[in-house]
Design a protein that fits this description.
Blueprint (H helix, E strand, L loop, with lengths): L2 H22 L8 E5 L13 E4 L33 E6 L7 E4 L2 E2 L2 E2 L7 E4 L7 E11 L5 E10 L8 E5 L5 E7 L5 E4 L5 E4 L10 E8 L4 E6 L2 E6 L6 E7 L7 E4 L14 H13 L3 E4 L2 E6 L2 E9 L17
Antiparallel strand pairs: 1-2, 1-9, 3-8, 4-7, 5-6, 7-18, 8-17, 9-14, 9-18, 10-11, 10-17, 11-12, 12-13, 14-15, 15-16, 19-20, 20-21
Helix pairs in contact: 1-2
Length: about 325
């Protein structure tokens, strides 16, 4: 029996156990927005632990609703995904054209290309025209002590005051907290008096995909911001429940870009089917140090082989910049 076949045979023996475990968890343990419960970490035992609240990687966007061009493109390409897990989008675009919030696959200029897959979200602002998107949860998160965790890949093409903003609100649209980028890598937050304060020892980079994370424990007076692994704690403007996150820019014609940091399994109920697992095992066997994600081979991160670290182009596919390729200033 070949090595690959032996692995499949082992897989088939353990498959019932894997499926049973997967069915107990109807969705992945991490998501774009997830409630970690009172434990505050993935895999907790709290009743609300690992409850996904919102997810969209923009790959289900209809092809005729994807912008193929650089900004400004008048095409209607606003995100159509339901937000996953009962969540929903609210797009705020006062331009009247839909050009300020678009799902795109464009690469070039300051457009980096998707972090994973083909599509990603472009948010910008026309002259006196707002562009923003709200990611609403299926229901407001109100349980005191539950930790709400946001993960998002963010690429910022501008170097301006309040060029990128991530804001948390209650379902009644009461402002809870927010983070704001200003020039030269500086990050600010808004305090309870409405004043902007600088967060020291944490910075952002222009024209580069970076992983932004926010953790907020319902009822707390602080929240945590993490950018590419560096974390800082800041005061909230007002504590309480959380109903949605808002992504926003105040800069004209220089977009911010959003994408998801990972892919969620597409099989029904969040469980991997036998064919999915067997295919994954066979693929891993043929490419020992790579995973295939969104049509691209991703080299395994040496510190965590389960996570991809960089793009590698299969033979016959067109060239594409790496996820952290340098882009023009």
């Amino acid at each position: 029996m070949g090595y690959g076949c032996m692995r499949i045979a082992i897989l088939l023996l353990i498959l019932p156990v894997l499926c049973a475990a997967a069915l107990r968890v109807s969705a992945p343990a991490s998501a774009y927005v997830v409630n970690y419960g009172a434990d505050g970490l993935p895999g907790g035992t709290d009743a609300n632990a690992d409850t996904p609240l919102f997810y969209d990687d923009f790959e289900t966007q209809p092809a005729d609703k994807v912008s193929r061009l650089a900004y400004p493109d008048p095409k209607d390409a606003t995100p159509t995904g339901a937000g996953g897990h009962g969540g929903r989008y609210e797009v705020v675009d006062t331009s009247g054209t839909g050009a300020n919030v678009q799902v795109t696959d464009h690469i070039g200029g300051n457009a980096p290309g998707a972090y994973l897959g083909d599509n990603y979200l472009r948010i910008t602002r026309g002259t006196a025209a707002v562009g923003a998107v709200k990611a609403w949860f299926a229901k407001e998160q109100t349980v005191i002590g539950d930790v709400i965790h946001l993960e998002e890949m963010v690429c910022i093409s501008n170097n301006a005051q309040f060029g990128a903003q991530i804001l948390g609100y209650s379902a009644a649209k009461t402002f809870r907290f927010g983070v704001y980028t200003v020039a030269n890598g500086v990050v600010k937050y808004k305090d309870s008096a409405g004043a902007f304060q600088t967060l020291s020892n944490i910075t952002w980079s222009r024209n580069k995909w970076q992983k932004w994370e926010i953790d907020y424990k319902i009822g707390d007076t602080t929240f945590d911001l993490t950018i590419d692994g560096t974390s800082k704690t800041a005061p909230v403007a007002g504590s309480g429940s959380l109903g949605y996150f808002m992504f926003f820019t105040m800069t004209n014609a220089t977009p911010i870009y959003l994408d998801e940091p990972f892919e969620v399994p597409k099989s029904a109920g969040g469980a991997l089917l036998a064919s999915d697992l067997a295919g994954l095992l066979c693929t891993r066997g043929r490419n020992e140090n790579k995973w295939k994600v969104g049509g691209w081979w991703m080299a395994a991160d040496a510190s965590n082989p389960a996570r991809p670290s960089s793009r590698h182009r299969p033979s016959g596919e067109s060239a594409m910049p790496g996820r952290n390729s340098a882009l023009p200033e």
